[in-house]
Amino acid sequence: MSEAFKVTFALVLLSALPSAALSQTSAPAQQPPQTATNAPDPNEVICEKQKPTGSRLVTKKICMTRAQWADLQLQDRQEIDRVQVRRSANGE
Structure pTM? Predict the structure, then answer.
């Protein structure tokens, strides 16, 4: 390759590097900071279809808010823990 071509190629590369570096550093500043808005809304209503035990045909649609579903799940977990503690205390 000729010496002039090498010098021109080097200049083109050097001139492109600072602009690429500047565009990369300025990109995160343009994005809004992440906030807690990504968290699910506790007041959002969610419906689930539940089948009663022993039935293949009947389904019930139950609608509650996320907070109510979370509370129900917590109550179920606490009841399971209570039953397990009582069982182990009775020696079963």
Answer: 0.51
